[in-house]
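Lab notebook, design round three. We kept the backbone fixed and only want residue identities now. Task for the bench partner: fill in a sequence for the structure below.
Input structure tokens:
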């Protein structure tokens, strides 16, 4: 087995030829599909500590959405009768 030079930054072995792959490849071919199905949100550290997994975060957000669907009824003001 041949030893590779220590100063070489190339991790690929010399007999691998990537030129045919690079010629036919399309940059960003699936990028739009990936973006359509992905929504990343960065949580602040204090908020992230409150949740142990992404499932817990999703459950909490679903509860917030359900709470927003509940109609808020205003209390009627009771008018004082003049004596």
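Proposed sequence:
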């Amino acid at each position: 087995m041949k030893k590779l030079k220590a100063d070489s930054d190339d991790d690929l072995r010399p007999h691998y030829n990537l030129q045919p792959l690079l010629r036919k490849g399309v940059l960003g071919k699936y990028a739009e599909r990936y973006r359509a199905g992905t929504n990343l949100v960065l949580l602040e550290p204090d908020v992230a500590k409150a949740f142990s997994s992404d499932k817990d975060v999703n459950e909490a957000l679903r509860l917030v959405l359900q709470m927003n669907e509940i109609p808020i009824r205003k209390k009627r003001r009771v008018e004082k009768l003049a004596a």
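Keep this in mind before ordering anything: The chain has four helices and no strands.
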